[in-house]
């Protein structure tokens, strides 16, 4: 697990540069997309590079991490709409190239199984962008999630619903109780995972992710078992890392050609 501590703009640029390099060598790459605040700087930077003609998503495909259950098709917080607005429409993905779990499916079990099959048929995810919840969730794999889980329906914790109420004009009653989410084993199938977190509210979750024992109580800790994870954090999110100085000096000494 590589930990890079830097300013938010620097982190967004590093992630976008890694995606640009991936698309250079593999234009048909498969990306994994997260919603929420954390990846927005990355999406802005990708949109900027796309406008400058530096990278093309015309042959790329993408899979979303998760989706709320029951939000109407046109709801602005339906994750399919959020992803369309924040990234897909800004970088020119082809029609039908971005898929997400169907939060309106009648048969949820079948919809989740089909989503898993679609990821396999696409050849798996090359690079997965992740945020992390203050309770240590990735995707919406809340504390207590099976470390071997696949895409399925989950109940959101009160803490996550309170955290996300800001997207629903602060009205907790509008935040759905359930979601469909890629499981932890699904996420672990990605070939490279880039997790980004900023702000003091993420410091405890980042400490557990990087330095804690692997436990379903802090689901992100499963990433310690993945061979290629990059954790991008700003100073406040890194403030509880015992090894922060080591991570800073290791990254400062890293040859620039090496990439993430
Ligand atoms: C979003 C997702 C969540 C968020 C996490 C952090 O698709 O799967 O795990 O990444 O809740 O959210 P933000 O970035 O808004 O703090």
How is this structure best described in words?
- With 260 residues, this protein is an alpha/beta fold.
- Helices cover 33% and strands 15% of the residues.
- The chain has eight helices and ten strands.
- The strands form two sheets. A seven-stranded parallel β-sheet has the order 1-10-9-6-2-3-5.
- Strand 9, helix 7 (203-211) and strand 10 form a beta-alpha-beta unit.
- The mean pLDDT is 97.
- The site of fructose -6-phosphate has 14 residues, from loops.
Number of H/I helices: 8
Tell me the strand percentage band: 15-25%
Order of SSEs:
EHEHEEHEHEEHEHEHEH
Mean pLDDT: 97
| Low-pLDDT ranges | none
* Class derived from helix and strand content: alpha/beta
Which shape, going by the Cα principal axes? Answer: globular
Quaternary structure of the protein: single chain
Please list the strands of the largest sheet in the order they lie side by side.
Answer: 1-10-9-6-2-3-5
Q: Share of helix among residues?
A: 25-40%
Largest sheet: number of strands, sense, barrel closure: 7 strands, parallel
Q: Which short descriptors sum up this protein?
A:
single chain, 260 residues, alpha/beta, seven-stranded parallel sheet, three-stranded antiparallel sheet, 8 helices, globular, binds fructose -6-phosphate
Q: What's the short story on this structure?
A:
The protein has 260 residues and is an alpha/beta fold. The chain contains eight helices and ten strands. The chain starts with a strand and ends in an 8-residue tail after the last helix.
